[in-house]
C-alpha cells in the first residue's frame, strides 16, 4: 500500500516539471548545442554512450557492494543477534548521504574528482570492514554512518563524471548508460553475494568485498588516466 502511495505521489510531482524549450526562431547554434546528425535505423550507441561506459563500469562495482547491504542486512543482523539494528543501519546510512551530497557537489566543482573519490572509497572500505566484524549494535550503527558518507561521495562522483564527459546532446544517453549498469550491478551483486554467503556466511560475504574495493580503485585510476589523456589530446587539436 505504501509503495503504491509513493508511486502515485511521484507521478503527481512530475506535473510540476517544466523542460526548457528553444524559443521560436532560436537555432541550436544559438543555444550552444552541437547539431545531431540523424541516422537511419537503430544502432547500439543510440542506447549506450561510449564515453560514459568506463566510469559506469566502476559504478557497476559500487552497485554490487550496495546490493549486499540492501539484500542481506536483515539476515546478517539476525545472524549476529542484532536484529533490531537492521532498520536503524539504513536510517544512519541515509542521513549521511543527505548530509554529505551537498558538500560533495561543492568539492567536486571547486577541485576535481580525486578530492571526492579517494576519501569516499576509504570511508566505504572502513565501514564495510567494521560491518563484517560487528558484534554489537553500536558497531553496526557506526558502520552505517561511515558507509553512508562514503557511498554518498562515490555515487555522486561517478554519476557526475558519467554525465560531464560526453557532448551535451548525449548526456541523456550517458545518464541512461550509468543507471543501466548500476541497476545491472545491483541484480548481479545480489545473486553472487548470496552465493558467497551460502558457501561461507554473511560475515565472510561482507569481508570478501574488501578485494572488490581494491579492484574498484584500480579501475577508477585507469579511468582517470584515460580521461586526462583524452583531454590533453582534445586540447592539442
UniProtKB/TrEMBL annotation:
Signal peptide: none
Gene3D superfamilies, per database record: MFS general substrate transporter like domains
Subcellular location: Cell membrane
Presence of keyword Transport: yes
Top-level taxonomic group: Bacteria
Domain Major facilitator superfamily (MFS) profile span(s) in chain numbering: 51-237
Keywords attached to this entry: Membrane, Transmembrane, Transmembrane helix, Transport
Pfam families given in the database record: MFS_1 (PF07690)
Bilayer topology: Multi-pass membrane protein
Transmembrane segments: 52-73, 85-103, 115-132, 139-164, 176-199
Protein name: Major Facilitator Superfamily protein
UniProt organism field: Paenibacillus macquariensis
Amino acid at each position: 500500500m505504501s509503495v503504491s502511495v509513493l508511486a502515485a505521489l511521484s507521478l503527481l510531482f512530475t506535473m510540476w516539471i517544466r523542460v526548457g524549450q528553444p524559443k521560436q526562431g532560436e537555432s541550436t547554434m544559438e543555444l550552444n548545442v552541437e547539431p545531431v546528425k540523424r541516422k537511419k535505423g537503430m544502432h547500439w550507441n543510440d542506447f549506450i554512450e561510449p564515453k560514459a561506459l568506463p566510469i559506469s563500469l566502476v559504478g557497476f562495482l559500487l552497485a554490487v557492494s550496495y546490493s549486499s547491504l540492501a539484500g542481506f542486512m536483515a539476515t546478517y543482523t539476525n545472524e549476529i543477534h542484532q536484529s533490531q539494528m537492521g532498520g536503524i543501519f539504513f536510517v544512519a546510512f541515509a542521513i549521511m548521504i543527505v548530509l554529505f551530497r551537498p558538500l560533495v557537489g561543492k568539492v567536486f566543482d571547486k577541485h576535481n574528482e580525486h578530492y571526492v573519490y579517494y576519501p569516499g572509497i576509504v570511508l566505504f572500505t572502513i565501514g564495510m570492514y567494521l560491518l563484517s566484524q560487528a558484534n554489537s549494535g553500536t558497531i553496526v550503527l557506526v558502520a552505517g554512518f561511515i558507509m553512508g558518507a562514503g557511498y554518498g561521495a562515490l555515487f555522486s562522483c561517478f554519476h557526475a563524471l558519467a554525465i560531464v564527459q560526453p557532448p551535451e546532446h548525449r548526456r541523456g544517453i550517458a545518464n541512461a548508460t550509468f543507471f543501466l549498469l548500476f541497476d545491472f550491478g545491483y541484480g548481479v551483486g545480489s545473486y553472487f553475494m548470496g552465493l558467497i554467503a551460502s558457501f561461507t556466511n554473511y560475515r565472510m560475504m561482507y569481508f570478501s568485498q574488501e578485494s572488490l574495493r581494491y579492484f574498484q580503485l584500480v579501475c577508477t585510476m585507469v579511468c582517470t588516466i584515460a580521461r586526462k589523456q583524452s583531454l590533453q589530446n582534445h586540447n592539442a587539436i
